[in-house]
Amino acid sequence: MDIRIGNGYDVHAIAPGLTMWLGGVQIPSENGFVAHSDGDVAIHALCDALLGCLALGDIGHLFPDTSDEWKGVDSKILLRKVVDIVHEKGYKVGNVDITIALQRPKLAPHIDRMRETLAPILGVTVDRVSVKATTTEKLGFVGRAEGCEVWASAIILKD
Ligand code: MG
Q1: What's the CA-to-centroid distance between 1 and ligand 1, angstroms?
Q2: Cα 8 to ligand 1 centroid, rounded to whole Å
Q3: Domains contained in the chain, CATH given
Q4: Prior bond to 105 cis, omega within 30?
Protein backbone atom coordinates (compact mmCIF):
# COMPACT_ATOMS: atom_id res chain seq x y z
CA MET A 1 0.00 0.00 0.00
CA ASP A 2 1.36 3.40 -1.07
CA ILE A 3 0.05 6.11 1.27
CA ARG A 4 0.63 9.83 0.77
CA ILE A 5 -0.33 12.76 3.00
CA GLY A 6 -0.77 16.42 2.12
CA ASN A 7 -1.85 19.66 3.75
CA GLY A 8 -3.29 22.85 2.36
CA TYR A 9 -3.88 26.36 3.64
CA ASP A 10 -5.76 29.31 2.18
CA VAL A 11 -7.05 32.72 3.20
CA HIS A 12 -9.53 35.02 1.49
CA ALA A 13 -10.61 38.52 2.48
CA ILE A 14 -14.24 39.16 3.36
CA ALA A 15 -16.21 41.87 1.53
CA PRO A 16 -19.88 42.88 1.50
CA GLY A 17 -22.20 42.14 -1.39
CA LEU A 18 -20.52 38.91 -2.52
CA THR A 19 -21.99 35.40 -2.44
CA MET A 20 -20.35 33.32 0.30
CA TRP A 21 -19.27 29.85 -0.87
CA LEU A 22 -17.65 27.43 1.55
CA GLY A 23 -17.15 23.69 1.16
CA GLY A 24 -19.10 23.75 -2.07
CA VAL A 25 -22.26 25.22 -0.56
CA GLN A 26 -23.72 28.70 -0.45
CA ILE A 27 -23.76 30.18 3.05
CA PRO A 28 -26.48 32.75 3.80
CA SER A 29 -24.56 35.96 4.54
CA GLU A 30 -24.44 39.58 3.47
CA ASN A 31 -20.70 39.05 2.89
CA GLY A 32 -18.58 36.86 0.66
CA PHE A 33 -14.92 36.21 -0.14
CA VAL A 34 -12.84 38.35 -2.49
CA ALA A 35 -11.37 36.11 -5.18
CA HIS A 36 -10.75 35.50 -8.86
CA SER A 37 -12.87 32.33 -8.54
CA ASP A 38 -16.07 31.94 -6.49
CA GLY A 39 -13.83 32.36 -3.41
CA ASP A 40 -14.49 28.95 -1.85
CA VAL A 41 -11.50 29.10 0.47
CA ALA A 42 -12.30 25.65 1.96
CA ILE A 43 -12.18 23.93 -1.41
CA HIS A 44 -9.01 25.80 -2.30
CA ALA A 45 -7.25 24.52 0.84
CA LEU A 46 -8.57 21.03 0.11
CA CYS A 47 -7.26 21.15 -3.47
CA ASP A 48 -3.85 22.19 -2.14
CA ALA A 49 -3.87 19.29 0.34
CA LEU A 50 -4.58 16.81 -2.48
CA LEU A 51 -1.97 18.39 -4.75
CA GLY A 52 0.44 18.36 -1.80
CA CYS A 53 0.00 14.58 -1.56
CA LEU A 54 1.43 14.37 -5.08
CA ALA A 55 4.00 17.19 -4.69
CA LEU A 56 2.31 18.96 -7.62
CA GLY A 57 2.41 22.51 -6.29
CA ASP A 58 -0.81 24.43 -5.59
CA ILE A 59 -4.04 25.43 -7.31
CA GLY A 60 -2.66 28.89 -8.12
CA HIS A 61 -0.07 27.08 -10.24
CA LEU A 62 -2.67 24.81 -11.88
CA PHE A 63 -5.44 27.40 -12.33
CA PRO A 64 -3.73 30.83 -12.55
CA ASP A 65 -5.76 33.83 -11.33
CA THR A 66 -4.48 35.71 -14.37
CA SER A 67 -6.52 33.40 -16.63
CA ASP A 68 -10.02 34.43 -17.75
CA GLU A 69 -10.82 30.72 -17.95
CA TRP A 70 -11.05 30.54 -14.14
CA LYS A 71 -12.74 33.90 -13.50
CA GLY A 72 -15.71 33.38 -11.18
CA VAL A 73 -15.33 29.61 -11.57
CA ASP A 74 -17.27 27.25 -9.31
CA SER A 75 -14.49 25.82 -7.12
CA LYS A 76 -16.16 22.40 -7.24
CA ILE A 77 -15.00 22.27 -10.87
CA LEU A 78 -11.42 22.89 -9.73
CA LEU A 79 -11.74 20.16 -7.08
CA ARG A 80 -13.07 17.69 -9.69
CA LYS A 81 -10.04 18.44 -11.87
CA VAL A 82 -7.68 17.89 -8.93
CA VAL A 83 -9.39 14.60 -8.00
CA ASP A 84 -9.07 13.55 -11.66
CA ILE A 85 -5.31 14.10 -11.36
CA VAL A 86 -5.22 11.98 -8.16
CA HIS A 87 -7.04 9.17 -10.02
CA GLU A 88 -4.85 9.53 -13.13
CA LYS A 89 -1.81 8.96 -10.89
CA GLY A 90 -3.40 5.71 -9.71
CA TYR A 91 -4.47 6.89 -6.26
CA LYS A 92 -7.85 7.18 -4.55
CA VAL A 93 -8.70 9.59 -1.77
CA GLY A 94 -8.51 8.00 1.69
CA ASN A 95 -9.98 10.74 3.86
CA VAL A 96 -9.85 14.50 4.25
CA ASP A 97 -10.11 16.83 7.23
CA ILE A 98 -10.89 20.55 6.88
CA THR A 99 -10.83 23.23 9.58
CA ILE A 100 -12.47 26.57 8.77
CA ALA A 101 -11.78 29.65 10.91
CA LEU A 102 -14.53 32.25 10.40
CA GLN A 103 -15.95 34.69 12.93
CA ARG A 104 -19.44 34.85 11.41
CA PRO A 105 -21.88 33.54 10.38
CA LYS A 106 -21.95 30.37 12.45
CA LEU A 107 -21.20 27.42 10.16
CA ALA A 108 -22.53 24.54 12.29
CA PRO A 109 -25.89 24.38 10.41
CA HIS A 110 -24.02 23.98 7.09
CA ILE A 111 -21.27 21.47 7.97
CA ASP A 112 -23.17 18.30 6.99
CA ARG A 113 -24.24 19.81 3.65
CA MET A 114 -20.58 20.60 2.93
CA ARG A 115 -19.58 17.00 3.74
CA GLU A 116 -22.40 15.61 1.56
CA THR A 117 -21.39 17.93 -1.30
CA LEU A 118 -17.66 17.18 -1.16
CA ALA A 119 -17.83 13.38 -0.64
CA PRO A 120 -19.10 12.43 -4.14
CA ILE A 121 -16.61 14.78 -5.79
CA LEU A 122 -13.82 13.12 -3.80
CA GLY A 123 -15.21 9.66 -4.59
CA VAL A 124 -15.52 8.72 -0.92
CA THR A 125 -18.30 8.15 1.60
CA VAL A 126 -19.38 11.04 3.80
CA ASP A 127 -17.74 9.45 6.87
CA ARG A 128 -14.37 10.10 5.19
CA VAL A 129 -14.98 13.85 4.90
CA SER A 130 -14.46 15.85 8.07
CA VAL A 131 -15.35 19.54 8.16
CA LYS A 132 -14.84 21.52 11.36
CA ALA A 133 -15.45 25.19 12.01
CA THR A 134 -14.22 27.56 14.67
CA THR A 135 -14.19 31.26 15.40
CA THR A 136 -10.97 32.80 16.70
CA GLU A 137 -12.66 34.38 19.73
CA LYS A 138 -12.58 37.78 17.98
CA LEU A 139 -8.76 37.67 17.79
CA GLY A 140 -6.73 38.53 14.69
CA PHE A 141 -7.97 39.18 11.15
CA VAL A 142 -10.42 36.29 11.35
CA GLY A 143 -11.79 37.55 14.63
CA ARG A 144 -12.23 41.06 13.20
CA ALA A 145 -14.27 39.43 10.38
CA GLU A 146 -11.76 40.64 7.79
CA GLY A 147 -11.03 37.19 6.38
CA CYS A 148 -11.53 33.46 6.46
CA GLU A 149 -8.69 31.01 7.06
CA VAL A 150 -8.80 27.29 6.22
CA TRP A 151 -6.49 24.33 6.83
CA ALA A 152 -7.01 21.00 5.10
CA SER A 153 -5.34 17.60 5.31
CA ALA A 154 -5.73 14.70 2.90
CA ILE A 155 -4.51 11.15 2.54
CA ILE A 156 -4.44 9.35 -0.80
CA LEU A 157 -3.89 5.62 -1.30
CA LYS A 158 -2.67 3.27 -3.99
CA ASP A 159 -2.87 -0.54 -3.63
MG1 MG B 1 -7.89 30.71 -2.73
Answers
A1: 32
A2: 10
A3: 2-158 (3.30.1330.50)
A4: yes
